[in-house]
Each structure stands twice: as C-alpha cells, then as structure tokens.
Amino acid sequence: MGEKILSIVVPCYNEEAVLTAFYEELHRNAGLLSGRVSCEFLFVDDGSSDGTLSMIRDFAEHDSSVHYVSFSRNFGKEAAIYAGLQHAVGDYVVLMDADLQHPPEFLSDMLNALLSGEYDSVAMRRVDRKGEKRIRSWFSRRFYGLNRRISGVDIPEGATDYRMMTRQMVNAVLSMPEVNRFTKGIFTWVGFRTLWIPYHNVERTAGSSKWTFWGLVKYSMNGIVAFSTIPLAIASVLGALCCVSSMLMALWFVVKTLIWGDPVSGFPTLITVILFLGGIQLLMIGILGQYFSKMYLEVKHRPMYIAKEEKTAERKD
Ligand code: UDP
Ligand code: MG
C-alpha cells in the first residue's frame, strides 16, 4: 500500500491579496507532515474576478501537487466546498479558508487525531471572536442557539469550516445531493466521531471578508430551512390557539350579553383581531413560501457549479 494522501481543499474568491502568503505558510506546514502523508493542494477558484486564478495556475505550474478547479462564475463557498470534496483524491481531506484565519499549524494535530483511528473527523472551534464586528458575533450566537433548538442538528458554538475528515466521511457528505447546502449542518447530520479542537480567532491577514450582513441573514435562513421543518408546524399551533381563544371569547360574549345586555360596540377589538389574524396568515404563507422556493430549486436539479477550467487527479480506489 502506497503512502496515504491528505487533500487540502481551499475555496478562494478574490483572494489575490493573501494567496501567496497563504500558499507559502501552507507549504511550510505541509512539509512537516511528510512521513505521515503526502499532500495534494486543491484550490477551488469560485469565479474570482481578480488575479486569483492566474496565481493558482502559477502555483500549479511549479508544483505538481497543486490541483485546481475554476468556476465559470461565483457560486458561493458551499458550492466551492462541494467541488473540492468531489475532486479531492486524498484518504483524508481538510477544508481551509485562504485568508489564514484557519492556521495551518493545526494540520499536524488534526492529522494525528485521525491517524490514531479514534476519530473520523477533527474540526476547529473558535473560543472567541476577536476582531469581528460585535453585531455580527451577536447575531451569529443567536442564530446557532435558534438553530440548535429547532433543527436538532447540534452545531457547537464557534464551529468553523476548518475540518479534516476521513475518506469515508467525505463520501458520506458527497452522498447528500441537495443543492441548498448548509455544509455545517451536513457535517453534523452525517454523524461519525468528531474531535473539536478549540482555538483563538485569528484575524484575516489581508483582503476583506466576503460576507455582508444580508448575506449572513440569508445563510442563516437557509440553514434553518435546510434542516428543520418545525417552522411549518408553527401554523398548526397558532391555528389551534386561535380556535381555542375564539371559542372562549364567544362563550364570554354570550354570558356577558345574558347578564348585562350588550350595546353594540367594540370596533377597536374587531380591528385588532382582524389585523392580528391577517398578520399571522401572511407570516405563515411566507414561511410556506420559503420551503416551497427551496423545493422549487431542488427539483430543477441544476448542477451546484459549472467548472470552466480544471487540473485535477483521478482517485485510484
Ligand atoms: N469564499 C468563496 N466563495 C465565496 C465567498 C468566500 O470561496 O463566495 C471563500 C473565501 O475566499 C475564503 C473563505 O471562503 O477562503 C471564507 O471567506 P471569508 O473569509 O470571506 O469569510 P469569513 O472568514 O469572514 O467568515
Ligand atoms: Mg475569513
């Protein structure tokens, strides 16, 4: 049996400012793994509009262990991760950001945990969010709390996408064909034994984060819709509550009229109730719409990404 291979998958979107530093740092740390595994570097260029692709081509020209896939446009990090996992040939695969926020120093420890055979996956967890905007951290925490409660996939606080997995787990992740991919949820959903390693947040070395506030809101909504059907049940619960309270109210009006007699009044009550019910109905239609639109996109079976250019290897099984 030949030497085991570790594939290092790096999604990149407009990372020219940091890519060279990242590659050098990665290369140095990957060198320390020699003897245990040999490394494949797999860059996924997510439709960058800057010099990212030409830099990657350049790496590949000088180093035969560098492979890449380049998308025809920006398809998003989730698609880039999927493409990376698909094309990785390694017995182990690790996902890493290109901005050095996922320090390559940890590769060695992560690999050891997998080689020990005790774990199927090793993932990094940030214990703080130093250097991140307060408001973003606050919303992130709320989102993971909410997600944990309603979807039953327990994503630990501060979980990152920096994760090393065995081939078996990679294949399990690839066997989930959904287009609306919430990768963090998928990793938890497929199970397997995961070791969580805590670390302190590292700020981006150069370039800027690709996330906007609304991008993150959309990401969170996707995450919930992808893994939970509980929001759909809210309609039934609210409906039942409305029925019960309307019966109680009807009873109360009968009693009131019998005892005191009742001149017709109550316009404010009426309008409040109408607005309240109208509001609930629209909200529920909105929630239904969320699931419906996701279903619509799933049934189209569109590819998750379109590759324009690639230099990859075949996996020998
Ligand atoms: N990324 C990507 N496609 C995108 C956005 C981001 O491949 O549409 C990559 C990006 O190049 C980086 C990683 O995903 O390697 C994390 O992105 P970023 O640093 O912007 O996110 P943050 O660290 O702020 O969560
Ligand atoms: Mg980053």
Defining traits:
single chain; 317 residues; Spore Coat Polysaccharide Biosynthesis Protein SpsA, Chain A; 2 domains; 50% helix; binds uridine-5'-diphosphate; binds magnesium ion
Question: Helices, strands, pairings?
Answer:
Blueprint: E1 5-12, H1 16-31, E2 38-45, H2 52-62, E3 66-71, H3 77-87, E4 92-95, H4 107-115, E5 121-126, H5 134-151, E6 159-166, H6 167-174, H7 183-189, E7 194-199, H8 213-227, H9 230-260, H10 267-299, E8 307-311
Parallel strand pairs: 1-2, 1-4, 2-3, 5-7
Antiparallel strand pairs: 3-8, 4-6, 5-6
Helix pairs in contact: 5-8, 9-10
How does this structure look, described?
The protein is α/β, with parallel strands linked by helices. The chain folds into 2 domains: 5-134 and 154-212 and 303-311, Alpha-Beta Complex (Spore Coat Polysaccharide Biosynthesis Protein SpsA, Chain A), CATH 3.90.550.10; 230-299. The protein is built from 10 helices and 8 strands. The protein has helices at residues 16-31, 52-62, 77-87, 107-115, 134-151, 167-174, 183-189, 213-227, 230-260, 267-299; strands at residues 5-12, 38-45, 66-71, 92-95, 121-126, 159-166, 194-199, 307-311. Strands 7-5-6-4-1-2-3-8 form an 8-stranded mixed beta sheet, with helices on both faces. Strand 1 (5-12), helix 1 and strand 2 form a beta-alpha-beta unit. Helix 5 (134-151) runs parallel beside helix 8 (213-227) and helix 9 packs antiparallel against helix 10. The longest helix is centred in the C-terminal third of the chain and has 33 residues, at 267-299. The chain starts with a strand and ends in a 6-residue tail after the last strand. The model has no long low-confidence stretch (mean pLDDT 87). Bound molecules: uridine-5'-diphosphate and magnesium ion. Magnesium ion binds at residues 97, 99, 101, 204, 209.
